Amino acid sequence: MYLLIAQIAQDALQQDRVRLQHDYGYLMGGVIAAWVVLAVYVMMMIGRQKKLKREIDGLKAMVEEKQGR
Fold first, then answer.
1. In terms of Cα–Cα distance, which of 62, 39, 58 is closest to 50?
2. What is the separation of C-alpha 42 from the centre of its chain, rounded to a whole number of angstroms?
3. Model confidence at 66: pLDDT above 70
């Protein structure tokens, strides 16, 4: 009787382990997706910052040009 209970408990533990491994796969996929989205967002912000810097430099040059006249 004890061996039967031990076997059932062992089977239940094995099923739980397989389910948890499956769940961790989804968790890791979600974490990786979040990091990819974050990296893309940061790259977009860096690109916008560079574009704004160029625009500001151009505006500064226009102001200096008008002041020089």
1. 58
2. 10
3. yes
DSSP state of 36: H
State how far the Cα of 9 lies from the Cα of 11, in Å rounded to an integer: 5
pLDDT, tens digit, 9 for 90 and up, residues 44-58: 999 999 999 999 999
**Tokens read off for 22:** 């499956």
Is the pTM here over 0.90, yes or no?
A: no
Q: Is the dihedral of CA 44, 47, 49, 51 positive or negative?
A: negative
What are the structure tokens assigned to 63, written together?
């102001």
Q: What share of the chain in percent tops pLDDT 90?
A: 57
Q: Which residue is listed with tokens 């505006």?
A: 59
